[in-house]
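General statements about sequence and structure are easier to judge against a single worked case. Part of our work consisted of pairing the sequence of a single chain with a tokenised description of its backbone. The amino acid sequence and the backbone structure tokens for this protein are reproduced below.

***
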Amino acid sequence: MNMRSLRAVKPLERFLSARCVGTRAHGVRKLSSTSGSYPLVCIVGGGPAGFYTAQHLLKSHPDIHVDIYERLPIPFGLVRFGVAPDHPEVKNVINTFTQTAQHKHCCFFGNVNIGRDVSVKELQEAYHAVVLSYGAEANRRLGIPGEDLLGVYSAKDFVGWYNGVPCNKDLQPDLSSDTAVILGQGNVALDVARMLLSPLDILKKTDVTQPSLEALAASHVHKVLIVGRRGPLQMACTIKELREMVNLPGTKPDMVTAEFEGIAEALKELPRPRKRLTELLLKAAQGSAGSAQATRQWGFRFLRSPVEIRPSSDVTRTAGIRLAVNRLEGSGENAQAVPTGEVEDLQCGLVINSIGYRSLPIDATVPFDPHKAVIPNTVGRVEQVAGLYCSGWVKRGPTGVIATTMNDSFDTARALLQDIEAGLLKLSTKKLGSKAIVTLLEKRGVNSVSFLEWEKINAEEVKRGGRAGKPREKLLDVEEMIKIAKT
């Protein structure tokens, strides 16, 4: 390389170096443009699936280089935006993700929207392998009349509102009614119920956003019903989440005794985890009288499916919900809910849909199964596209806890490493990696955010939280985040 060429490269190298600083011991990572022999991998999505995939790759291959691209200026995805504010211990995994981001062969690019700012094809041209780990950002709709009335929200948006997702900051849910109905009985549904009923002195010590804290302080919701289409033996939550509801201060359970007929007799046949969960549920149902000091109620309603959101007299907002009464065919986990033809009406002013999330197609060039809402794959290898992989919810669907995502992501990473070992990724082909992508971003006016710059945002959030006696006060505006990152 002559001196003129070297001078031409230096500004971009300085730009990349400022974004890819690892730990102090490691200094600045090597530019991915300087070699065509070691594997260059990029990961789309800076949530748990993306970071766990990167972690396993970097741990297992000494020469691999990994770049992580994230749509928001901030990393960690659902660990930051999905975990309930009163579960800080679950967020400790962020420490592990931070170590991965600071690895000498890892680089984070926030505020880059793959599919809009850069295409998947352009990533494939720049890297030996591309891993899609962008999660599930869409809601599963109910598909019933009245779903779009005021007072009806998806759990995804409601959780995003109190957890600080920028696009949900203006949600302003109407909490003026006495009763809320949550459709779905998984952990997210119980998180939402707990947030609606938790005493303020508990919430004030969490990282719940200040606007949502103020709205919850003024809330009139005193009763939350958690509705499921099947029975007590098919309830989808974990015992930890149920125990938190049972022990929630100032609340008492409100159950329908008839819904538990025959459940006690079935206990001895249940696997141990399901047995423990059901025993706790039965205990709560039997203690439905609750404490005389309790001012708020929560309860499960089983064998019910929504068929219509009932409108108010002016037909603008919800006034209630009509539920089909079901019976079960079969038993255990495989039991199916079948309508009996009966219906039941509940009065409520707030309905939250917690029946699940959906992944969306990211790019027309990437195969996508619209029915299952996943990328068709075999152990993370995208079908019929060499060098393209997927992990997390976009790979298997929106199920499981963070540990499930960890194991799933490790499986994808192992598949990719096996393909490297088998010579399927053609490492002899020189790739430019982040150098090529940063050049495109500069031309397109995209202001990417590095991990070092995210740490400025993090420090500001912690500082603001400290003033209020909270772990952090999350920034809600993307432009403000970028301004702080670039200061």
About this structure: The CA atoms of residues 69 and 109 lie 5 Å apart. Residues 1-15, 21-36 have pLDDT under 50 and may be disordered.
